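Fold description:
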Amino acid sequence: MAPGGQDGSFQEVSEEFRPNSRNLKPMEIVALPRRALSVRQPWAELILGGQKSLEIRSRPTKVRGWVQIYAAIRREDGPWQLGAAHDHGLDLGTLQRGWLLGMAEIVGCRRVSPADSREACFAIPADQELYGWQMANPRRHATPRKPSGQPQPSFFFVD
């Protein structure tokens, strides 16, 4: 699936993105997806760095395909965030917030268990019904972008 929302909408073509997806030709230049996913730090950084392949949410998603990764402005210094930042050598205080930092492909969604903790970059509790949005092929923007629309807690659209 090429980058873009399920509605087939795309942003202007940019030569800085050449994702390696099984559905794209190796040198095909692709458009930026209009759909963005809001993710708090350090999770956004870990997704774009390829260390986090499961974005944990309380609800499943049917969305598949490319999304831009927006690092949410709200800072949360809970034990899971602090632990993940420490384990990966990140300083929560210096991570960018309020920017579209890159993009990744949502390739699936499934219920998760404590056995999925490594892919999620934190200890998944056994007593909660949680879902892992499977993230693949992360690509960092050469230059972070400010979103044109109003960021929302989950998905939102950008121009």
